[in-house]
Write a structure and sequence with these properties.
Oligomer: single chain
Shape: flat
CATH class of the largest domain: Alpha Beta
CATH superfamily of the largest domain: HUPs
Strand content: 5-15%
Largest sheet: 5 strands, parallel
Strand order of the largest sheet: 6-5-4-10-11
Number of domains: 4
Radius of gyration: 30 Å
RNA sequence: GUCCCCGUAGCUCAGAAGGAUAGAGCGUUCGCCUCCUAAGCGAAAGGCCACAGGUUCGAUUCCUGUCGGGGACGCCA
């Protein structure tokens, strides 16, 4: 999972065979002078017609070809049909028909559509994988929540999207690395340290507060705060919890003896490794965010999400392992390349006091900046007292990404950051130019488009259709862990499955309603159960066949598959790699979720209709084997699809009885 | 004020690169288990794809504007 290599490939599927045929036909047409240019198979548009009478597949290629061939679409389509028959040496097609204003409807030969089953069963684990990503090296950064508090629901949505996208991209032949940027530097980290420090010193109050809190909400703290606790400190109960874990070790207990938090000089003496005594670099602050990060990792693990790398912002500031200060360095390089400048300015320091002096600005408004990346004003990267802004570190971080040689960067951000997107792309534009000036040979065509940002909209939590009361910003005060735990039923993985699937039922830029009541329901209201049930039902048919003494056997004859339903299901199997590739290209794993629902619907319909006159298991041994092959192929495809979403595919639905009861 | 996203069935939402008669679930109405999981299936009803222009053989899809809803605009991170 952590390696950059794309997933292994399945051999070419049915769609690719048909595309090749069309491309071959065009090529014959080129030789005969009908068409000016050949066309790559991957460029052949293929779609499944909505109506069965329009065949198995259709192409609208004649419309685009009509222009270059200087003819009308119908004439081109007729020519194409003749060429297809000529090129079809393998007998893929049963018929090719002209339809409407220029569509070519293709009806596949029976052994052609049946071959979709063989395709799946030949490489069941990798079926669906495709090479549409062409090995592009992608860095996918997501979540990157500050380690100053627990993950909330909105973070969870970004996490699920990012993880599913990574899976879908890898299946499509992209080389993906996933990364979480840990903001472990700055005022907020100092505030976290200060908050913990206050709790650390007030042990009696802490003990009683924690006892009160034990029954309550970990985010909203019910009891009083220690004397001197900062107005803008972190007020959640988890802060007192962290202090409690530190209180037992002498190292952090020692911090409690410091008289004043704002006496930097005294801290510098007490902790010599932090020569400036800065608040975010004190031992208690560092231990605090590290503790918080452990909790974040544990929360993500509940969803089965991990990262290839946890990128530390401290490392950029040269605060780890005597490393270089990349932030300062990057600011200098930008100034040298005229992408930043120093200017007199007025600002505010940490306490909000007015600050005069010369600050360094990033020139996001430079005249050669393309309009789509142009910022409305230049932004400060180094404050007049020399402290870098968050923006400065982000610039250095993205320069580091470029230095590591990724072809493409994808960041998943909360939609509230959308104003930040052009600015960041402007940074990439500038960094590309900077690296060209520095003679980096890879930088020849690096522009702001190298960075792609996916914005994730808010999650609105509902309970039985009614909004869950929350703070001013929805989602912010309900933790991800709370939601997962509330939604978990008797089956341990049910919380993870429900959260993941339901979060992937909407595209990222649409607001999502998440109903806690529905998420733990075991009915059709809950799509994750519908799809899992489809998989379990397929598994059940296979085990029933074994019990009946007719276990599935490899290399079964498929000729007896003849029903319209069976033809449709085979075409669905063939479509799967297309859907994976499409979801990857569009960065929309939700397409896969909808496709799985449609696929299960088609299977349930087949199954139910078959109950009377087309059962899978029958006295006809040949037919039984053919249908079992189809069933097994469907099971693999649903399994693979669920796996790409990070949802488990059970062979049997657990705790059917308990969960079927309405919850009180 | 500037900018971004969204307006599709009563509700919640799909509709890739413009294509054929507009799709699903929920809800409503009516049906389907002697038999592989009824946690299922079938059918009916339900639509000026917000509105007005434009681009072309063709627009729910692309462009412009109007109206309506949501959001962002710090020497914060």
């Amino acid at each position: 999972m952590s390696d950059l290599h794309p997933a292994p490939l399945a051999p070419a599927g049915l769609y690719q065979r048909v595309r090749q045929l069309v491309a071959d036909a065009i090529e014959i047409g080129v030789h005969e002078g009908f068409f000016p240019d050949a066309i790559a198979p991957s460029q052949v548009p293929l779609e499944r017609p909505r109506q069965a009478s329009h065949g198995d597949l259709a192409t609208n290629l004649a419309f685009s070809l009509a222009k270059v061939a200087k003819s009308n679409p119908r004439a081109v389509a007729e020519r194409l049909i003749a060429l297809l028959k000529q090129a079809d040496t393998h007998g893929l097609l049963a018929a090719a028909e002209l339809a409407g204003p220029g569509f070519v409807n293709l009806r596949l030969a029976a052994n052609a559509w049946q071959s979709a089953v063989t395709d799946v069963l030949h490489t069941p684990e990798t079926y669906g994988n495709n090479r549409s990503g062409a090995g592009e090296r992608v860095l996918l950064e997501f979540v990157s929540a500050n380690p100053t508090g627990p993950l909330h629901v909105g973070h969870g949505r970004g996490a699920v999207l990012g993880d599913a996208l990574a899976r879908v991209l890898r299946a499509s032949g992209y080389a993906v690395a996933t990364e979480y940027y840990v903001n472990n530097v700055g005022n907020q980290i100092g505030k976290l340290g200060e908050s913990v420090w206050h709790w650390l010193r007030a042990s009696a109050l802490r003990q009683s507060a924690l006892a009160t809190w034990a029954q309550g909400d970990p985010v909203a703290f019910p009891a009083g705060f220690p004397k001197g606790f900062p107005e803008d400190g972190y007020r959640g109960g988890y802060v007192a919890q962290i202090a409690e874990t530190f209180a037992v070790t002498s190292e952090y207990a020692a911090a409690a003896h410091q008289a004043r938090w704002d006496d930097d000089a005294a801290w510098a003496v007490a902790e010599p490794e932090n020569a400036e005594g800065r608040a975010d670099n004190r031992r208690v602050s560092i231990a605090a965010w590290q503790q918080m990060l452990l909790r974040i990792k544990a929360d993500l693990a509940l969803l089965g999400i991990g990262f290839d790398r946890w990128f530390s912002e401290r490392s950029l500031h040269g605060l780890e392992n005597q490393g270089a200060n990349a932030v300062a360095d990057c600011a200098k390089r930008l100034q040298a390349a005229k992408w930043a400048y120093e200017q007199e300015s007025v600002g505010a320091d940490e306490e909000g006091e007015t600050l005069h002096g010369r600050a360094v600005f990033f020139r996001g408004t430079r005249e050669d900046m393309p309009a789509r990346f142009l910022d409305s004003k230049d932004r400060v990267i180094l404050r007049s007292d020399g402290r870098p802004t968050y923006f400065a570190a982000d610039i250095a971080y993205h320069d580091d990404k470029l230095a590591r040689g990724f072809d493409h960067l994808i960041n998943i951000l909360g939609a509230d950051h959308h104003g930040y997107v052009p600015r960041l792309q402007g940074v990439l534009q500038a960094l590309g130019d900077l690296r060209r000036q520095e003679g980096d040979p890879r930088a020849a065509r690096w522009t702001g488009d190298r960075l792609e940002v996916l914005l994730v909209q808010m999650v609105a939590l509902l309970r039985d259709g009614k909004p869950v009361p929350m703070g001013k910003r929805s989602g912010e005060f309900v933790t991800l862990r709370d939601v997962i735990e509330e939604v978990t039923t008797a089956e341990p993985s049910s919380g993870r499955n429900a959260v993941r699937f339901l979060f992937l039922m909407r595209k990222a830029d649409a607001q999502l309603d998440f109903d806690l009541e529905i998420a733990r329901r075991t009915s059709m209201d809950n799509p994750v159960y519908y799809v899992q049930y489809g998989h379990a039902r397929l598994a059940s048919v296979l085990s029933k066949a074994e019990e009946a003494g007719q276990p599935w056997q490899a290399h079964a004859e498929l000729r007896s598959l003849a029903l319209d339903d069976e033809r449709n299901l085979c075409m669905i199997l063939a479509e799967f790699p297309e859907i994976v590739a499409r979801a990857a290209k569009a960065r929309e794993p939700h397409q896969l979720a909808f496709w799985l629902l449609d696929t299960c619907r088609a299977f349930h319909a087949y199954y139910t209709r078959g109950k009377t006159d087309a059962r899978v298991i029958s006295d006809d041994l040949l037919l039984t084997q053919a249908r079992l092959s189809l069933v097994l192929a469907l099971k693999h495809v649903i399994h693979n699809g669920l796996q790409l979403l990070g949802v488990t595919a059970p062979d049997r639905m657990q705790s059917l009885q308990e969960d079927a009861e309405p919850t009180a």
